[in-house]
Amino acid sequence: MQNAERVGSALKEHLCGIAENSKIIGDVRGLGLMIGVELVKDKVTKARAKKATEKVMVGCFERGLMLLPCGPNGIRFSPPLTITEKEADTAVEIFAAALHEVESSM
């Protein structure tokens, strides 16, 4: 449980950092290692970005990271409780690369 709290906190912090510079991340929320990232077309209106969400998920999968959908525009991080910080960092790097690719094509 301590690992879930420690690594989950670091994972969420990294994702929030990415969200600050992202055009399409509307929210990052979660507890422990279950963290959701909401993608939006516009940060003000919070209109759901369904197609961008699908593209980011496919981009992550193609890079070796499997994430779960959470509604039409949510991406769920739900790693095993034994995940290491290094593995979580790798997941964040993959997610950031896929997100950047999608944002660059918009």
Protein model, in words:
With 106 residues, this protein is α+β, with helices and mostly antiparallel strands. The N and C termini lie far apart (40 Å).
Q: How many discrete domains?
A: 1
Structural class category? alpha+beta
Fraction of residues in H or I helices: 40-55%
Q: What is the terminal-to-terminal distance? A: 40 Å
Number of helices: 3
What attributes characterize this protein structure?
3 helices; 106 residues; globular; alpha+beta; Aspartate Aminotransferase, domain 1; four-stranded antiparallel sheet; 4 strands
In short:
With 106 residues, the protein is of the alpha+beta class. It has helices at 2-21, 50-62, 85-104, and strands spanning 25-31, 34-39, 68-69, 74-77. The chain has a four-stranded antiparallel sheet.
What's the helix and strand layout?
Layout: H1 2-21, E1 25-31, E2 34-39, H2 50-62, E3 68-69, E4 74-77, H3 85-104
Antiparallel strand pairs: 1-2, 2-4, 3-4
Helix pairs in contact: 1-3, 2-3
